[in-house]
Amino acid sequence: MCQCRFNHRNRFTKQAVFRCPHCKKTLEKIKERKEYNIYKCKNNACPFYQANLRRMTKKERQQFQQDPQAFKVRYLFREFLFDFLPLASSSLIKPKVDLSRLAASPHVLGLVLTYYVNFGMSSRETAAAMKDIHGVSISHQTVLNYANSVALWIKPFVDRFPYELSGSFCGDETYIRVKGRWHYLFFMFDAVKKIVLSYRVSPNRDTLSAIKAIDDVLRKLASLPDDLSFVVDGNPIYLLAQHFFAQHGISFDVRQVIGLTNEDPVSEEFRPLKQIIERFNRTFKGNYRPTHGFGAEEGSVSFVTLFVAYFNFLRPHSALEGRVPVVIPELADLPHMPARWTKLIAMAQAFLQQEAA
C-alpha cells in the first residue's frame, strides 16, 4: 500500500493536459460546444503547422496573409464530452412480454401486422379492416399493443442477424413526429443489397446520434475493410463522428454529397448512392404518414423496427429482380404474408432463446 493520500492539495487533483502529437506543446482550448471542446496548437514552430504552410501555393499564401482564419493549418483536437465506447459488446435483454398470452391467434396477429406494416394503414384503419373483412373485432389500441409487443421480440433478431453486406454504405436523416415534436430518424443503408443497417430515433440531430448509427453498421461487419466509407449529406455531425472513431483507432472515409447539384467531384461521383437512400426515405414516409405521429418514443421505435423487419426480410424489391433483400428459405416457402410474419416472430423467439442459452 502506498503512502500517498488523495487530498485537495496534491498533484492528483490537476486536470489532464492535452499536448500536440507533433511538437509536444500544450494545446489551448479555443471553443466549447455542447458535445465537445476544441483545442488548438498555437506553436508557430510546430512541424504540422510548418508542413501545411509549405504545401500552400503562392496564391494561397497571399490569401492566408489577408485572411488566416479561412485556412485550417494548425493541429486541432476535439475532446468529446459524452461517454460512448465503439464496438462495445452488449448482452441481449429478453423482453418481458409473453406473446403466447396475447388474446389473438397467430394468424390474426399476422393479419394485423400485414395491414399495419406492409400496407401502411393506420391503427384505426387496421382495426376497421379486421372487422369489415375478417369479422375480427379489435380496437385500434389493441393493434398498437400487438405491434409494440412484437417489435420487442423482433428487434434483437433484426439488429444481430448475420447479414452479407456489399460495403457500399449510405446514410441520411428523416423526420418523424413524437409527442407533438419532430424527432430525427437516422438510417444507415447498404445501397447494393438494399438492407437497412441502422434506424436510430433521436430527439436531436447531434453527433452522438450519428456515432451510434455508424457504430450499428460497424458491429455488423466481420472485419473492418481498409476502404470503408460512408456516403452522407453535408451535415458536419458525420465528420465529427469520423474524428471520434479515429480517436479510438477506427478509420473510414466520409463522402459528403452537398446540395442538389453536382458542384464538386465528390458530389458528382457519389450522388447515385445518396439518391438511393433518399428513395428509401420516401418509401418509409409512405408507410409512416398514416400514423400521424406517435404519442411516445417507444411507439415510434416499435413502428420503425417493424418496418425495417418488413423491408429486410419480407418486402420484394424491384432492384433485386423481385427478391427480398435477405432471403430466408423458411419464409420464402410460405404461401402468404400473415404466415411469414408468424414465422418471422417464431424465428426471433428461437434466436433469443439460443443466444440466452
TrEMBL record:
Residues 158-333 form the Integrase catalytic domain. InterPro entries: DDE_dom (IPR032874), Integrase_cat-core (IPR001584), RNaseH-like_sf (IPR012337). It holds the Pfam family DDE_Tnp_IS240. SUPFAM superfamilies: Ribonuclease H-like. One of its GO terms (biological process) is DNA integration. This is Transposase. The lineage of its organism: Bacteria, Bacillati, Bacillota, Bacilli, Bacillales.
